Amino acid sequence: MKLRLSLIFLLLSLACDNDPTNRNPFLQEVGFRFDLNLNLPLYSNLNNIGNPVYVDNAAVGTRGAFVMKTGLDTFLAFEASCPNHAPNNCSTMTIDGQNVQCACEDFTYSLFTGQLFDRPEDGNRYYDLLFYRATLSGNSVIISN
């Protein structure tokens, strides 16, 4: 019995992943919570599927967040700072339809998946958008990390 428990413990400890290489070295993962009232004109685009909104607020992430309704009650939120370099004067991305674009390297990311389009195959590691939680509560979307 002790042998079985030891084997189970060993397997569980090996299954945990503490690999720091999965974390984005350019963006800090700051904790926040911000409510978007869908009755306000500023966030009214979020009442329709596929219309992203840029939340430009110092209390949200590093450079704000992009929020988009992707289903009837489903929303996605992503950090607005380009994930592939340290925040600087050109790292705040801009909305281009249902994508966002970084002016520094002309990288384009999908707001439906957060993935980088046309990932360069130069052997370097490239990161996708930093995901934030987005939940519908009544007539508000709560984004948090």
Note the topology:
Blueprint: H1 2-15, E1 33-37, E2 53-55, E3 65-69, E4 75-79, E5 94-96, E6 99-101, E7 108-110, E8 131-137, E9 140-144
Antiparallel strand pairs: 1-9, 2-3, 3-4, 4-8, 5-6, 6-7, 8-9
Q: Approximately how much helix is present in the residues?
A: under 10%
What's the alpha carbon Rg, rounded to whole Å?
Answer: 18 Å
Q: In total, how many beta strands?
A: 9
Overall shape: globular
Sheet-strand content, in percent, reads: 25-35%
Number of helices: 1
Overall average pLDDT: 88
Which residues sit in consecutive blocks of at least 5 with pLDDT less than 50? none
Q: How is the largest sheet built, in terms of strand order?
A: 1-9-8-4-3-2
Could you provide a short overview of the structure?
This protein is mainly beta. The protein contains 1 helix and 9 strands; from the N terminus they run H-E-E-E-E-E-E-E-E-E.
Plain-language structure description:
- The protein has 145 residues and is mainly beta.
- 10% of the residues lie in helices and 27% in strands.
- It contains 1 helix and 9 strands; from the N terminus they run αβββββββββ.
- The strands form 2 sheets. The chain has a 6-stranded antiparallel beta sheet, with no helix packed on it.
- The longest helix has 14 residues, at 2-15.
- The chain is globular and about 65 Å long.
